[in-house]
Write a structure and sequence with these properties.
Distance between the termini: 111 Å
Order of helices and strands: HHHH
Number of helices: 4
Structural class: mainly alpha
Number of domains: 2
Strand content: under 5%
Length: 101
């Protein structure tokens, strides 16, 4: 391989690496713009906040963390366990065994 071929090969590698870096930077910029647009779209006006945070709003019977942050009210706690006991259906079914006197 002569000097000209090595030089061309090195220039091709540099060009390819530069192109890959430019593609990564462009992707990061596009993702950043999309993230900004989504965050900006989720802003609410003071009128919307007042209507949403109204104590008479039926949607606020259960308050999640986002609603809590927006309205400044505590979240609604949920109880993962239930206190109700279920009765197996076999106990409720009539017995076919006769009781002895």
């Amino acid at each position: 391989m002569n000097i000209m071929e090595r030089h061309a090969s090195m220039m091709t590698r540099i060009f390819t690496i530069s192109l890959m870096i430019a593609a990564v930077i462009t992707t990061i910029i596009i993702i950043g713009i999309e993230t900004f647009n989504v965050g900006h779209a989720q802003l609410i006006t003071p009128q919307e906040k007042a209507q949403f945070c109204n104590p008479n709003n039926p949607k606020l019977k259960f308050v999640n963390s986002t609603e809590s942050k927006i309205c400044g009210i505590p979240t609604t706690s949920t109880n993962a366990t239930t206190n109700a006991t279920t009765t197996p259906s076999s106990i409720l079914a009539p017995s076919i065994i006769k009781a002895t006197p």
